[in-house]
Specification:
Layout lengths: L1 H16 L2 H6 L3 E5 L14 E8 L4 E10 L2 E13 L4 E8 L4 E10 L2 E7 L5 E11 L2 E7 L5 E9 L1
Antiparallel strand pairs: 1-2, 1-10, 2-3, 3-4, 4-5, 5-6, 6-7, 7-8, 8-9, 9-10
Amino acid sequence: MLLVFLCAFGASAQETNVDQAAGLKRYIGEWVSTVSPESNEVGAQPDIKMVNVPKMEGTALQVEVFQFRNNAYVSILVELINHDVTTNKIVALGQNEKGESFSGTGSFSDKDHWLMTDHDFNGKHTQTVSFQFFSDNEVYLEGKDNTGKILWKTRYVKK
C-alpha cells in the first residue's frame, strides 16, 4: 500500500514539475505536414499548414490550420490555446470548418509529451489529441476517439 502511495505521489509530483507554459511555447511558429505521419520528409506542396502566433508573451497561441485544396490553402480550424495559471493546465477553445466548436484541457506529462482532451459544447468527448515532440522542429499528433480508435494522425515540421 505504501508503495502504491509513493508511486502515485511521485507521478503527481513529476507532472507538477513540468513547465506547462514553456512546453506550449515550443508549438509557436509555422508548421507544415510531412508526406506521411511515419516520415519527416516534406513534399513540394504540403497538405496541411499550421500557423501558431504567440500572444500574451507566449503563454497563449492563436492557431490556424489550413488544408491545400484547389490550388489554395483553405482555413479548416481556428483555435486559441493557452496556459492557465490557476489550474496549471493547457486549455483550448476552437472551431472547425463545419462551425463545430470545442473546448479542450490537458497538460504536458514531460517536455516532449502533451495530451489534450476535447469536448463539444454538449459535454460530449470529441477526441483526445496526443502530441509527441521529437525536437523543437518536429511534432507528431494523433487524434483518438473515446474508445482509443485513431481518427487521424499527422507529423509537422517547423518551417
